[in-house]
């Protein structure tokens, strides 16, 4: 969540100590630092810019204006107006929320122009008085808590159930909702039909709050989810060694709905893992396997997306090293569950229940608390070390690759089958190759052959179509895909 910017305005010399104390208080407070950042003019480095241009621009760009009005009026420009008054006027013109704190029990000792400013401001807003510096912080605290409550940022329920700011149903993508219904009907027998309108679907999934789409609705079906929830992106990186080091050979930041984030992050990792292809000694199809089972990679990533703390400014990080895959998310475990408990049968306690339900309906997750257990079991079956889980500044799942020294990975599909290790080619190229080899193949069949979700293959196919590398001949039903040109 993007933090709100607070602009502190006052005569700097008179309130030097109070300004610093206020900034430090809001920065150090565990609650307020999640929601606010403070701008003080004196914190800016020296620059070849007019001071008045800088502070007026900041006053107009802030989310909240805090004015500290004391005895002094401050430096007056050629028109006899001080920076404090100009900042107040700029915030007023820009329609900013203004919180005014007046020093002293009465105004008789104040500069005449300061008295005039206070009088002019009084009818427009609520102001509070403080008589000593120690009284300022409690007054600001009360105002900011009221602001958070009024804007429903202090939640008494899950983050995903809260309404998402200025979002309207027009900010949601109808095509994504129809695709969800189609996939959910196929996967779990979802009761609504594809013809159901957006409001019916959102109501059925409890994704509206008094008609306003919730955070979960935006994450699931938003046209641009990161416009409203910037930290919901996923950062993926591939390192050749065993430590984070620059230069980073491959780095991607993915944006989109939670479905797209999971699919893109999983594809990123699978494209970097060794893919082994066996012989056709026992079947007409050559056995294939990745060094880390795809189901394990997908489970680690979807858990991070589903259970992270979306109120945090951190983003999910997926990092592939020579010896391991690490998936980190800004979240933790529910109080009823420990890290050791993840290795045993346990109940499902989703951190974001309204987000988890659609992920369940499309078979991205289960609702039985079996995810980590499945990861452990599949790693054992693949001959890998058991995954490790830990909670520090967030939650990290570590999935070990076979060779921890970072040398070439050797695996076998079956001990009786001689295999050759091949580097995984990109999904797009594999889709094109299948279309060339098997004219008339459907996207669903391609997804099955590649071991990917239908949504992931559709996403790649749409990209290839946009790039004019493939085209659709005939109707949606009964037509076929055609390769138009090879990659340049």
How would you portray this structure in words?
The structure is a single chain. This protein folds into 4 domains: 4-150, Rossmann fold, CATH 3.40.50.450; 159-228, no CATH class; 231-424, Heat Shock Protein 90; 426-488, Arc Repressor Mutant, subunit A, CATH 1.10.10. The strands form 5 sheets. It has a 6-stranded mixed sheet with strand order 9-8-12-13-15-14, covered by helices on one side. Strand 17 (470-473) and strand 18 form a beta hairpin. The protein has helices spanning 16-28, 32-35, 51-61, 83-93, 112-121, 133-150, 174-188, 198-204, 215-221, 225-228, 258-270, 294-307, 353-361, 371-381, 427-437, 443-450, 454-466; strands spanning 4-10, 36-39, 64-69, 97-103, 127-130, 208-209, 212-213, 234-238, 250-254, 274-278, 288-290, 316-320, 324-329, 388-391, 395-400, 419-423, 470-473, 480-483. Helix content is 37%, strand content 17%. By secondary structure, the protein is of the alpha/beta class.
